[in-house]
Amino acid sequence: MKLIIAIIQPHKLEAVKRELEAVDVNLMTVTNVLGQGRQKGITEIYRGAKEAGGLINKVRLDIAVNESFVEPAITAINKGARTGSLGDGKIFVIDLQECIRISSGERGGTAIG
């Protein structure tokens, strides 16, 4: 089992969701977050000088998947989120020790869905 964490641009959320649904990945948690990457936040011109502003709005997706869904999910996120520009986001894949469905007590891969 793996936990996929994707940080994407907010306007790409619907495209990513469509791509994930196309590969039967339907369960996810979506959170609005703030952050900065290599671009170091928002750059603005103030009185003729460049200034780095605040943090950029992003969307974080947390997706727990069984091993057979890892690569299809990564491919789907890339396809839906990529614009080819700096700031498209990142995907992190983490080993998931355990998953427990609260309503039934199921554990492991069957609890993921």
Termini distance?
A: 11 Å
Number of strands: 6
The count of helical stretches stands at: 3
Output the CATH class name: Alpha Beta
Q: What is the typical, i.e. mean, pLDDT? A: 89
Sequence of strands across the biggest β-sheet: 2-5-1-6
Task: Explain the overall architecture.
Strand 3 (43-46) and strand 4 form a beta hairpin. The longest helix is centred in the C-terminal third of the chain and has 12 residues, at 70-81. It is built from 3 helices and 6 strands; from the N terminus they run E-H-E-E-E-E-H-E-H. Helix 1 (13-22) packs antiparallel against helix 2 (70-81). Strands 2-5-1-6 form a 4-stranded antiparallel beta sheet, with helices on one face. Strands 3-4 form a two-stranded antiparallel sheet. The chain has helices at 13-22, 70-81, 109-112; strands at residues 2-8, 29-35, 43-46, 49-52, 56-65, 89-95. The protein has one domain: Alpha-Beta Plaits, CATH 3.30.70.120. The chain is 23% helix and 35% strand. By secondary structure, it is of the alpha+beta class.
